[in-house]
Amino acid sequence: MATVSTSNRLASVPTTEPAILVVDDLVMRFVTADGGVTALDHVSFGVKPGEFLAVIGPSGCGKSTLFNIVGGLLGGYAGAVTVGGETISGPHASIGMVFQEESTFPWRNVLDNVGFPLEISGVPKRERIERARHFISMVGLDGFEKRYPSELSGGMRQRVSMARTLASEPKILLMDEPFAALDEQTRLLLGDKVLQIQQQLEQTTLLITHNITEAVQLADRILVMTYRPGRVKRIVDINLPRPRTSEIVSSEPFGRYVAQIWNDLREEASRGLSDAETRPLRTHDKPQGQP
Amino acid sequence: MSTARLIAPRWLPPMVGLASVVALLAVVELLIRVGLINRFIVPLPSEVATSFARVIAEEGIFQRFLQTAWECFAASILLATFGITIGVVMHRLPLLRRACETWVAAFASAPLVLAYPLFLVLFGRSTTTIIMLAFLSGLPPVILKTLEGLSATRRVLINVGKSFKLTPAQQFWKILLPSALPTIFVGIRLGMIFALINVVGVEFLINFGGLGQLINELAERYDLPGVYAAICFVILVSVIFFVVTERAERWLRSAA
Ligand SMILES: Nc1ncnc2c1ncn2[C@@H]1O[C@H](COP(=O)(O)OP(=O)(O)OP(=O)(O)O)[C@@H](O)[C@H]1O
Ligand SMILES: [Mg+2]
Predict the structure, then answer these.
(1) Is A8:A242 a contact under the CB 8 Å cutoff?
(2) How far is CA B176 from CA B4, B33, B183, in A?
């Protein structure tokens, strides 16, 4: 294995380093017509600088709720989210979000979409274009600068969204199932892109996903959530060498991690499934991705 | 064969459009000539065509054309300004919206032109009467479409704005408005159609001003070919306005 000799970045992140993002005892309840749903139940974890944490859990376990709370878009919870020691109370400048749904601006071309956060922070036009181009090429979209989202494929649009968030140079990148709508091949290849970018920028990343392969392929640690109420079931360290590529999915240790996490998830997923079958009219059967 | 059909040349659609108009006129001409349509009610298209020169030379049509176009332009500016503003305010204040949306919609279908005597009393027999009536009758669709467009802004785009910490003003100018713009322009086009109809209608009714008055006069002289030639100029006004709004929309979208 050629990859063994390359540096393992996990080792380079000292375990004593304080977490830049701390989620502390988060509890979130939604009040609905038929009582209430506890979406998050005493969820706590931390993400260290440069670390890639994946949160995985069955559908409806509260992942998007967590994403919206950490992103500062949702209030009314108990507990606290701190970024660099500062408790958030709304969108935080250090956090960049990539949404589950298609979120490019259809009236802007790729260059202006990616340059959007720079425009907002008042970066002069020339520099803005230069920096936007840099991030466009980082996600592999050179030559598409003048295209509009309607002229791009779903995977390309998702890369535009990612480049736009990266262009704001957030300390922490927060992603909610960014590849959920894509086919498996595109997903793997985009996963490579994310890995490459994350390693290049040493980007602290919190990825929300329900895809085990994706989680193991990308993450330093995986947080497995239980089905409702959403709790932390287990946090698994992924000791696979870095830099990784999608080729790793065929390796033997990779398979072991996938099996281990699937084992954890199976219980939860089947609980979710039988819950949905026995109570088909419950309000949680709403479309995915809504906050 | 099939690929040739798919990549039709750019000039083909307008040519087919023109040809269909010509064909329609030819059919009308034929029906009149064989006597199926009474030629005292519908003049021969060929007579209309030949009457153009006369109408242009004798009736000062360009003057009237400019007059009608100006009234229509003024009404359009008013209805866009007020319609969008009112729509935005109603979108901001949900209570106002719930209170007023229904009757604004009802207002849209009211035959406002029948209130022209009231406007005559208020503004006299003047361009102001014409512009005000046209403006008011075109206002509801702009308000309603502005509301519709703003409310249809996708939640996730608003969240993108929040995550980039946009101020409420930036949120409006950079996200809500551009996202609503296509729908707002549908409203403006609708409003302009109502406005033009009312401009010409009121000119006709109060016998004042541009093309509408001319149509009135020609009709009284029973100069039917002349009437239809004048109507062609009304259509020209609307064509010009459509082209202008299309340009404006494209420009605004790229500026957002
Ligand atoms: N606005 C809301 N009102 C009421 N209940 C809500 C609301 N948002 C989420 N919930 C509930 O909270 C639970 C978690 O929802 P969430 O969207 O976070 O799930 P998820 O893990 O992201 O699911 P998926 O993988 O399908 O996107 C669900 O049971 C849902 O019904
Ligand atoms: Mg979700």
Answers:
(1) yes
(2) 41, 57, 12
Report the C-alpha gap between A231 and A243 in whole angstroms: 31
Q: Ligand 1 atom 6: the closest Cα is on which residue? A: A30
Ligand nearest to the CA of A39: 1
Strands A232-237 and A86-87: unpaired
Provide the pLDDT for residue B39.
81
Q: Given the CA of residue A61, which atom of ligand 1 is nearest to it?
A: 21
How confident is the model over A163-186, as pLDDT tens digits?
999 999 999 999 998 887 777 887
Testing the interface with A: which of B163, B175, B254 to mutate, by most A Cβ within 10 A? B163
Of B233 and A181, the one with more pLDDT? B233
Give the list of residues 6+ apart from residue A215 with CB closer than 8 angstroms, or none. Answer: A54, A56, A207, A209, A222, A261
pLDDT band of B166, cuts 50, 70, 90? very high
How far CA A189 is from CA of A195, A205, A275, in Å, comes to 10, 18, 34
Q: Do residues B10 and B127 share a domain?
A: no
pTM here?
Answer: 0.82
What pLDDT was estimated at residue B218? 85
Q: What average pLDDT does the segment A77-90 reach?
A: 90
Instruction: Decide: A210 and A187 in contact? Cβ < 8 Å.
Output: no
Structure tokens at A246: 């999608």
Q: Which residues contact A249 (CB under 8 A, 6 or more apart)?
A: A188, A213, A216, A217
Q: A116-125: per-residue pLDDT in tens?
A: 999 999 999 9
Tell me the average pLDDT of chain A: 84
Rounded average pLDDT over B85-92: 94
If asked whether residues B97 and B17 sit together in one domain, one would say: no
pLDDT of A285 strictly over 60:
no
Confidence band for A281, pLDDT divided at 50, 70 and 90: very low
Number of domains composing chain B = 2
Interchain CB contact of A178 with B (< 8 Å): no
- Whole-number pLDDT of residue A286: 44
Domains of chain A as residue ranges with CATH: 1-94+172-258 (3.40.50.300), 104-169 (no CATH)
Question: What CATH number should be reported for the domain holding residue B60?
Answer: 1.10.3720.10
DSSP class per residue in A227-278 = SSSB-EEEEEE----SS--GGGGGSHHHHHHHHHHHHHHHHHHHHHHHHHHH
Cβ–Cβ below 8 Å for A120 and B170: yes
Domain that holds residue B29: 1-42
B203 CA to centre of ligand 2 in angstroms: 60
Same domain, residue pair B68 and B109: yes
